[in-house]
């Protein structure tokens, strides 16, 4: 999966990123995923890392890459039916 931001001006860093993830195992009440990501700023060196992320289906699981990019798994939100 790819992502990125190109801002309208030069005050912030333009970047692209890629994410690969896969299910690893069940631990207690959580699913554990392997998350491999690469962050590529237009100016500077790319960063590549592999992390594990646990998701219990109730609370968001967040992996902070930097101040511009947070990878997260969010629980389903209940749908509200219109009256």
In words, what does this structure look like?
- The protein has one domain.
- The protein has strands at 2-5, 15-27, 30-41, 47-55, 61-66, 69-73.
- With 83 residues, it is mostly beta strands.
- The radius of gyration is 16 Å and the shape is flat.
- A four-stranded antiparallel β-sheet has the order 1-2-3-4, with no helix packed on it. Strands 5-6 form a two-stranded antiparallel sheet.
- It is built from no helices and six strands.
- The N and C termini lie far apart (38 Å).
- The mean pLDDT is 84.
Large-scale geometry: flat
Low-confidence parts lasting 5 or more residues at pLDDT below 50?
A: none
Q: Taking all residues together, what is the mean pLDDT? A: 84
Share in β-strands: over 45%
Helical fraction equals under 10%
Note the run of SSEs as H and E: EEEEEE
Q: If you compute it from the alpha carbons, what radius of gyration comes out, rounded to the nearest whole angstrom?
A: 16 Å
Total DSSP helices: 0
Instruction: Please outline the major beta sheet.
Output: 4 strands, antiparallel
- Largest sheet, spatial ordering of strands: 1-2-3-4
The first-to-last residue Cα distance is 38 Å
């Amino acid at each position: 999966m790819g992502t990125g931001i190109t801002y309208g001006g030069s005050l912030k860093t333009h970047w692209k990123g890629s994410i690969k993830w896969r299910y690893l195992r069940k631990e207690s009440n959580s699913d554990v995923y392997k998350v491999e990501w690469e962050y590529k700023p237009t100016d500077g060196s790319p960063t590549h890392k592999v992390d594990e992320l646990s998701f219990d289906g109730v609370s968001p699981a967040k992996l902070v890459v930097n101040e511009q990019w947070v990878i997260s798994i969010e629980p389903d939100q209940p749908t509200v039916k219109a009256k």
